[in-house]
Design a protein that fits this description.
single chain; mainly alpha; two-stranded antiparallel ribbon; 11 helices; about 0% strand; flat
Length: about 325
Amino acid sequence: MAEIAALMDARTDRIGEHAADHPPAWAITALGPVPSRPAGRLEWQKRAAAIGAWRELSGHSDPADPIGPEPVAAAPDVRAAWHQALAALGPVNGPDVRGMPDGRLLHLRDIYPVETAWAPQHVGDELRQVRAAAWDARLAGLRAAADARAADRRGDHDQAAGQRKLAVGYRALEQAYRQRETVFAQTMADRADWEAATRDQRQLAVAADAEIRRRHPGQHFAPLRSAEAEATTGALRDELILTRGRSPGIDQWIKDLAAGHRAFAGKLADRQSQMIPSEDPDYGSLGPAFPAWSGPRREPILQPPKPEIPPSPRILERMMDRDADWEAAD
């Protein structure tokens, strides 16, 4: 057994050396070009050796896909070789879907429109618009009230009455804008909750889409498209511009946003309460149905201790003189 293992290790080393001398397409795709420095070249060669050994052992020959999906129904040594090749590919940012079969990747891609379909509408621009308008109305009302007080002091009661009426109108306008601001702010808060609740699933969908395209570069896949509600049109934004002197009502689309908040709250609560049932009814649930994905663990980087910087002789001399002065004062 020891001789066989030694022969296999020697064969793996030769695969890495050959890949470094004549880089194949799969090695360039997986590891990039061969580094010019000896240390980087040796590291590249070791990683290419692990991937090349797996390809030779399994017969995987796709030039665009270095290792393919994990061989589930295979001997333990074959799966071990695949995992060594997977580790040689290096860490990934986000969910690691490289070992998933194509069917699961396609299923994860289909999650994206499902998760985006219940996203609250993005009304950030509308929120900024009504907040700025409410502030302007507040300033105009304060200015009109100040002008009314100044007119009263001058004895111009007609102008004072007009300015007070103007101030009342601006306060009503500010109140109308604040009502709209409340709805828009709640909608954006709901959207932040939605983003947090669906972030992991959406990242999985994007990662699965990238992986399936990497495996099959010549095959056409429809791009991921969000099923979110369309953004507010310019005509609806124009309805947010209110005029003083009339009692503005809440537009229907803003009422729909307020009603959508209640529906979203129920959807979010239902999602967070969903659990995976166990096959054994006496065992209970297996955990949340939508768990948070935990990224790859990163070990802390050990830092060398900071060097001690001794004080200069002049500093030490000054400190000794200061201590001597304090002793003399005592």
